[in-house]
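Fig. S4 source data, part A: sequence.
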Amino acid sequence: MYTVINQLDAVCLARDWQARHSTDKRFTTLPKINLSNIINDRFSLGWVINPDTHLDQFTKLLLQNINNELTKRD
């Protein structure tokens, strides 16, 4: 994604969290602008999956375990 943005002048709307926690440190050099005054930029954590995709049992279990950890209340 960094190459597409940087070399092809593509535009990418991404969350700061994604750039800060990416393993690709080049994301920190990309310019940032605040669009909260023109678009709804509220964010919810969740999975984006294709409902027609059949996930194997291991993947379903992995996702469920991650969900459980993310939603755990202390």
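Fig. S4 source data, part B ends here. The chain is about 35% helix and 0% strand.
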